[in-house]
Design goal:
Blueprint lengths: L2 E4 L3 H14 L5 E4 L5 H8 L4 E4 L10 H9 L5 E5 L3 H11 L3 E4 L4 H20 L10 H11 L4 H8 L3 H15 L4 H10 L4
Parallel strand pairs: 1-2, 1-3, 3-4, 4-5
Helix pairs in contact: 5-8, 6-9, 7-8
Length: about 200
């Protein structure tokens, strides 16, 4: 288990790798410069717990790389970390299967916060066997209550005093835990299972 950083700019790859090593010194980081190198990296290093992906690569552009990765590795979350503007690509990236989207212009602290949320989610997933729905974390229960109130990601972020990107990561983790695909499904399940 490790993190694959796919970016054709060596400086950016190294910066993300250094950030991951600072946040989680025991997490292996594999640096790649194109999508075509992923299969060989999986053979050599095993399945990653997270893929950080630039959208503009020598062998892919836009959300095609996300779709290709999700076809081959459907259970691996993808964090898009790109120079491409969110206004053009964020919704398309999420629809294609990305778990979160960050522009490279985000602060190091914000990128670190989102990476840390993924690292924490992966560590939790490794340690937790399937458990009863009642055993959600405190944060997951907070999210369910706020989702049930119909709050937007922006409002949830304000309420919990975290970034919107971190809200998206927490929601992604919650949806996986509940085995649902949308906010309304999560709210419905929470109500029918008495989680609220």
């Amino acid at each position: 288990m490790g993190i694959f950083v796919i970016d054709n700019h060596p400086l950016m790859r190294e910066a993300v790798a250094m950030l991951v090593r600072r946040l989680s010194p025991n997490t292996p980081v594999v640096e790649l410069w194109r999508i075509a190198a992923v299969a060989q990296a999986v053979e050599k290093h095993g399945m990653p717990q997270l893929i950080c992906l630039e959208l503009k690569l020598p062998d892919t552009h836009g959300v095609f790389g996300i779709r290709e990765l999700k076809r081959s590795y459907p259970d691996v979350p993808i964090l898009v970390l790109t120079a491409s503007p969110a206004i053009d690509y964020e919704d398309l990236a999420i629809e294609a299967g990305a778990a979160a989207f960050l522009e490279k212009s985000a602060s190091a602290a914000e990128i670190a916060q989102v990476l840390n949320a993924f690292l924490t989610a992966a560590a939790g997933a490794e340690s937790e066997a399937p458990v009863a729905l009642g055993k959600l974390s405190k944060r997951q229960k907070q999210l369910l209550v706020l989702l049930d109130k119909g709050l937007s990601n922006h409002d949830i972020a304000d309420n919990l005093q975290i970034s919107e990107h971190t809200v998206k990561v927490h929601l992604w983790r919650l949806f996986r835990r509940l085995n649902v695909k949308s906010r309304s499904q999560a709210s419905h399940l929470a109500r029918t299972q008495g989680l609220l």
